[in-house]
């Protein structure tokens, strides 16, 4: 895929912050209302969080409710919204049933023609017990992705990641080296880990790559007691927070200048200064 020439024209990015529940219909209705709000405020690129349509903590129920791509209700809705509103629209992720007792945690990028322009399956699985007593075993339910993804926007190249991927810097470097100027990190960060690490990690990934980072997030308390951190962020290539959400559903927006990517990389050219080296004995 050849990179789209960087037009240099600024555009407006919007991160949608939601409190997704255990059923598709109300969750999608809430997301649609916020997408329309962002469009009304002038957004050109609109992004929703991880698990936009369904956040179900019970494994059996999650497997039952996560539908195949051809019958998932979020896909025709987002196709229609992108075409109607004439925007680029990222579904941060939908749980896509794979028919083998596993789910793909899959991002979809829709173009203004309503077509899917890119898909990305979350690579890194969050398997951990955290000190607040919550246990997460994503690998028991989700099938890990195996391929990094970049795609073209009118303003430059976009790299796709999801949530826990944020803790694996080599993925972000690969995306930047593949020409990404912008990287998405739709997330459902836990309240505990979000308060400790969310801002630091997102700013670090922006600084390391010289990319804009777009991180739409889940927020609040969900069915089953899961708590997510919120604080959706848009971060500049220099590591500046351009927009931040709070702890309630809503929309955060920022004007994006693609030329800032080249400026940041010229001041700290770490992508070109990298060298090969032998590992320690």
From TrEMBL:
Domain CN hydrolase, which positions? Answer: 11-258
Recorded source organism is Denitrobaculum tricleocarpae
**Quick check: keyword Hydrolase in the entry?**
yes
Q: Does the keyword ATP-binding apply?
A: no
Q: Which InterPro entries match?
A: C-N_Hydrolase, C-N_Hydrolase_sf, Nit1/2_C-N_Hydrolase, UPF0012_CS
Q: Which UniProt keywords apply?
A: Hydrolase
Species classification: Bacteria, Pseudomonadati, Pseudomonadota, Alphaproteobacteria, Rhodospirillales
The source's domain of life comes to Bacteria
Which Pfam families does the entry mention?
CN_hydrolase (PF00795)
One GO molecular-function annotation for this sequence? hydrolase activity, acting on carbon-nitrogen (but not peptide) bonds, in linear amides
Quote the protein name from its UniProt record.
Answer: Carbon-nitrogen hydrolase family protein
Which protein family is it in?
Answer: Belongs to the carbon-nitrogen hydrolase superfamily. NIT1/NIT2 family.
């Amino acid at each position: 895929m050849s990179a789209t020439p960087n037009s240099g024209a600024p555009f407006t990015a919007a991160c949608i912050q939601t409190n997704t529940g255990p059923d598709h219909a109300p969750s999608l209705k809430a997301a649609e209302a916020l997408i329309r709000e962002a469009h009304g405020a002038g957004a050109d690129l609109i992004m929703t969080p991880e698990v936009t349509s369904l956040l179900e903590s019970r494994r059996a129920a999650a497997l039952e409710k996560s539908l195949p791509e051809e019958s998932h209700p979020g896909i025709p809705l987002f196709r229609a919204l992108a075409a109607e509103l004439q925007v680029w629209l990222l579904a941060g992720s939908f749980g896509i049933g794979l028919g083998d007792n596993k789910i793909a945690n899959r991002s979809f990028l829709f173009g203004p023609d309503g077509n899917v322009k890119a898909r990305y399956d979350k690579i890194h699985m969050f398997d951990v017990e955290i000190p607040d007593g919550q246990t997460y075993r994503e690998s028991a339910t989700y099938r890990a992705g195996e391929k990094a993804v970049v795609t073209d926007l009118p303003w430059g190249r976009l790299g796709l990641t999801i949530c826990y991927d944020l803790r694996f810097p080599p993925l972000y470097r690969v995306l930047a080296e593949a020409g990404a100027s912008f990287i998405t990190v739709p997330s459902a960060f836990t309240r505990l880990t979000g308060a400790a690490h969310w801002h630091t990690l997102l700013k670090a990934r922006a600084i390391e790559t010289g990319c804009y980072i777009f991180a739409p997030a889940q927020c609040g308390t969900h069915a089953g007691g899961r708590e997510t951190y919120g604080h959706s962020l848009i971060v500049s290539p220099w590591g500046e927070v351009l927009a931040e959400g709070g702890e309630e559903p809503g929309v955060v927006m920022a004007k994006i200048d693609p030329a800032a990517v080249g400026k940041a990389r010229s001041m700290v050219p770490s992508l070109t200064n990298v060298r090969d080296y032998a590992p320690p004995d």
